[in-house]
Amino acid sequence: MSQHRHPGAPGRAGAVPALPELPEATVARLPEYLRALHAIAETGHETVSSEGLANAAGVNSAKLRKDLSHLGSYGTRGVGYDVALLIEQIESVLGLTQCRSVALVGVGNLGHALAGYDGFASRGFRIAALLDADPSRVGEEINGLVVRHVDELARVAVEESISIGVIATPAPAAQAVADQLVAVGVTSILNFAPCVLSVPEGVDVRKVDLAIELQILSFHEHRKASLTALPGGLAATDTQEAIGT
Ligand SMILES: NC(=O)c1ccc[n+]([C@@H]2O[C@H](COP(=O)([O-])OP(=O)(O)OC[C@H]3O[C@@H](n4cnc5c(N)ncnc54)[C@H](O)[C@@H]3O)[C@@H](O)[C@H]2O)c1
């Protein structure tokens, strides 16, 4: 996943307590820690060592300790981290203590899959609106939500207090949809269309492109094959570290 961030994003939340400045890579790993912590909490454990949490999140423990130190969380020597407290801290930093309403624009193959996925709610997001430009899709019900025409975006954004827009339209339509989202006050966009969006300062865009992820894996396959072909073969490397995850 890649992202474009504009400094000084005003956000819409109003009086929010000052947040620590966090490296973007740390922010990107916090949701992994949160997922791992929830899984650990479900097993009934109240504390977790940095190594245990690092393993569960798939990162190295020194990196994890550094990341968590940015939140002022150092754990207790010999005990580790308090699981419930750390969940609370990470959720607070990520702004997940309030449920955010999401509008999904483009309800085709991918849009249907996203709209039908029940897992967002437990992670702090509610798909509150489905919008499409195709009149034949308007009125269809998916997971209890009725698809509305994209021309209704302004009204829907106010009615549902939309804070995040997800674009799942074909690439040629994506910029116009982004412009519409920005025009109705949305300042965070998740873009699945394979194109670069141009947005004003203060609007954050993240892009998800599975083809790019596959191309990166393809590079690593290619590289492993070329190393295996060398005399001595492939050195024993940690593939995840090599890939940088
Ligand atoms: N990021 C990924 O990993 C990934 C994976 C698969 C598909 N995609 C991308 O997701 C997008 C959707 O793919 P799909 O297979 O669901 O396509 P699709 O053609 O099945 O669906 C696209 C939907 O967007 C609607 N649409 C078109 N223009 C619109 C507009 N201006 N406003 C609102 N709705 C509009 C269409 O009516 C249609 O319902 C494509 O850009 C595709 O390349 C991304």
UniProtKB/TrEMBL annotation:
- Entry binding sites for NAD(+): 106-111
Question: What SMART domains does this protein's entry cite?
Answer: CoA_binding
Kindly indicate where the leader peptide sits in this chain. Answer: none
Q: Which SUPFAM superfamilies match?
A: NAD(P)-binding Rossmann-fold domains, Winged helix' DNA-binding domain
* Location in the cell: Cytoplasm
Ranges for domain CoA-binding: 96-196
UniProt lists the family membership as follows: Belongs to the transcriptional regulatory Rex family.
Matching entries from NCBIfam families are given as: PRK05472.1-3, PRK05472.2-1, PRK05472.2-2, PRK05472.2-3, PRK05472.2-4, PRK05472.2-5
The name on file for this protein is Redox-sensing transcriptional repressor Rex
Species: Micromonospora fulviviridis
- Gene of this entry: rex
